[in-house]
Amino acid sequence: MGAARQGKRKSRWREGALFLMKKNPIEMAKYLASLKDGNKTNAEIAALVDLSPSQISRYLQLLTLPEEIQAHVAAGSLPVTQPKRALKRRESTLRYSALSETHWAIINELSRVVFATQTQLADYLDRSVSVARHAINELVDARFLEAHREIRPYVYRLSSHGATITGTTKPRHWMSANAIHQRILRNTIELELRNKHPDARFVERRQCWKQGLFPSIGEHLLNRTIDGKTERSLVLIDDYMMAPNRIAHCLHRHHDKEKSVSAGTLVLRWTDVVSRVLVCCTDEKHAGLHEQFVQNNQDELSKPVIVTHVPPLWELL
Questions:
Q1: Which pLDDT band holds residue 1 (cuts at 50, 70, 90)?
Q2: Range with the lowest mean pLDDT among 128-137, 165-174, 231-240?
Q3: Residues 196, 268 within the same domain
Q4: What CATH number is attached to the domain comprising 144?
Q5: Distance between CA 186 and CA 155 in Å, rounded?
Q6: Closest CA relative to residue 255, chosen from 299, 298, 291, 210
Q7: What is the total count of domains within the chain?
Q8: How are strands ordered across the β-sheet holding 219-226?
Q9: Are strands 155-158 and 116-117 parallel, antiparallel or unpaired?
Q10: Based on the domain organization, do 296 and 230 belong to the same domain?
Q11: Residue 274: what are its φ and ψ, rounded to 5°?
Q12: Residue 53 is part of which domain span?
């Protein structure tokens, strides 16, 4: 009876191990580690699960790897055997000299917009999402890009390596979730405007500073060509339930000309440099309050104001 029970126990262990092997190498490694904690040698464990002692060692070594590499092994993107070497080999296949036109287009676009989703990068590049996704994943694996994985859809930015080859500076830390959402909302608005005005482009904040304009949160300067003339518009992105009277305040407030990056000799109010205002609100009901304010305060605003609803782009995980 003892031998029969032992045979059944071995069979159960063997079946459980084979099931885990099919599902996930890291889970298999954890299963083997649990047997190891029972004071069994690698040879004894190997006899139980129909693996060689060297295979047991290989699986157990997976648990000593960084979590990032373990995640790749679990997902099947790195092999169980020498995953570190495989990762280095993959990184070496996509070096600076091997970057394709699509790789460069993604890197250059991110150097301008700072943050973007896969879909936005595909739209900027006029590529399919599958082509953009493949190139983005290659750039992430090669450490040219970084992904923010606490946001869905994932948001990407240049890594230190990617910033270096474009001559830009990468912030040490990620911006707040609200600041990132502002950035990717701005991408969506810019892409939508390009359907009618292909040259529509937001002016970077540093360029605004040099002109004596200092945007507050949610304020963005947009250039586009309408009827053959360059028009400058103030875009207010309201994803924080802005009070409607802030529209007038944003237009007429005086900017601080004492900022060190500005000479302080140019016009320092939005109303003096823009032809119209576009208010983009992520809350549909709140957008209605903005529309009502605009209708009742045309004289105070002094500029055409268009209010539109833009759905929020992501949720925190």
A1: very low
A2: 165-174
A3: yes
A4: 1.10.10.10
A5: 13
A6: 210
A7: 3
A8: 201-202, 219-226, 229-238, 276-281, 305-309
A9: antiparallel
A10: yes
A11: -110, 155
A12: 2-80
